[in-house]
Fold FAD/NAD(P)-binding domain-containing protein.
Amino acid sequence: MLAHLLLFTKVFGVVISQAGTHLRAFISSFIHRRTYKPGSNPKNIVVVGASFAGYNAARCLVNSIPSGYRVIVIEKNSHFQFTWVLPRFCVVEGHDKKAFIPYGPFLRAPPGSHLWIKDTVEEIIPSEDGNPGGKIRVSSGEKFDFEYLVLATGSSAALPSRVGQEEKKAGMQALRDQQEKIGGAQDIVVIGGGPAGVECKGTIPEKNVTLIHSRKTLLHEGFGIKIHHTLSKALRDLGVNLILGEKPTVPTGVTVGDIQLSDGSVHFDYLIKCVGQKPNTALAKFAAPYAFSKSGHIRIKPSLQIADDEYPRIYAAGDVIDAGSLKNGRSAMQQGQVVAQNIVRAIRGKSQIEYQQKWWEGLTKLTMGLTKSVAYVTDGRAEWVIPTKSKIDLDCQQVWKFMGATPFVDPDEEKENNSVTEMEVSSYLP
Ligand SMILES: Cc1cc2nc3c(=O)[nH]c(=O)nc-3n(C[C@H](O)[C@H](O)[C@H](O)COP(=O)(O)OP(=O)(O)OC[C@H]3O[C@@H](n4cnc5c(N)ncnc54)[C@H](O)[C@@H]3O)c2cc1C
């Protein structure tokens, strides 16, 4: 009871301190907007990847960089791909486009403070002989100089965890293909009982569904026993065959088959793999081997500079780094913010601040079926599991609003529709 009271007080404290942080950021960006000038030949701070980590790093940077600097954001996707809804939108129809949030308004960037490039970074070429900065090369062949660089390339996987397509149209089609395959299957096996697997299963009605998870408890490190009990009961109530503590060989290249377990086997005519996310570290190949963890993530210093003293101006944030047990959107955003603060501090000749993952970054909402969910947080001593409700689209309009976009209006789509209408009209003109 005392532990719960303490947790409640701590959550309340975090809410107050975050409100203070946002207010301070609002005031300082208001002042920055009126004083910042890019100058005629600004120095570049390049951000590679604009998801939770990179997009927030870019937002904090454009609202705090000194005059004479600008931010270049390089992102290969046409839209912000909102991972949290992917498992659900792989099953339910009619919401696909909500997973693709238009880029731009979240930055609230003063004029001249940034350049947005939709392209893939192919190579990072750090300067040699101890000179600071370097160049990056994008797939079009163009090169850009950088004074500072933020690597926020995240991780890759297949659906239902990642879209695997750069353009919105192709991404929506990929979701529809999944809906069709899942809709046509009867015996579905979900491999992996992390948040994606639990969400995925909770959404599939009227099918035989088996969920296989390697740990004895659902989810992963950082989640406690109470949430395991809540979720496993909810899943069993939904009719799921829950198999824990099993790590079977996952078949590849087959659409129908059997999975061998230590005690028997389970048949599938559709397999959903919610495991095997890999950090996108290929661009960091210039760094020394010790700058990578055993899991293949980029090792960082507490300042979030990469753990290779040769490159003090290269920072990394988000799922691509080894920064603690939590790999989630909130942590990625916090890291993006610290990276931005440290780059500005470095430019101003100030000491670096340190990032340490905090328990409240694990605050999350987990769904248990189509409309039931729980809000969850733990400080390692007590767990708080609060039953809530959510809409079928997981209330994702809130995230659109947070990203500065009008739910679910996409200016690119509007432009496309208008140009089609103009073409149609002109084809009727004499
Ligand atoms: C199914 C699912 C559900 C989830 N649910 C939650 C949740 O409820 N709450 C929560 O907090 N977290 C959740 N997460 C975790 C969260 O999505 C990740 O932690 C977060 O996306 C990490 O953000 P990131 O910016 O580090 O990387 P990513 O989101 O992986 O993004 C990396 C970005 O870099 C770009 N990129 C990569 N390489 C290049 C290149 N060479 N050139 C240009 N651009 C490049 C990519 O296009 C991408 O936009 C969930 C994850 C999954 C998969």
User: Anything to note?
Assistant: DSSP finds nine helices and 23 strands in the chain. The longest strand covers residues 69-75. The pocket of flavin-adenine dinucleotide is lined by residues 48-54, 74-77, 83-84, 86-87, 120-121, 152-155, 160-161, 195-196, 280, 283, 318-320, 327-330, 332, 364 (CB under 6 Å). The CA atoms of residues 231 and 377 lie 14 Å apart.
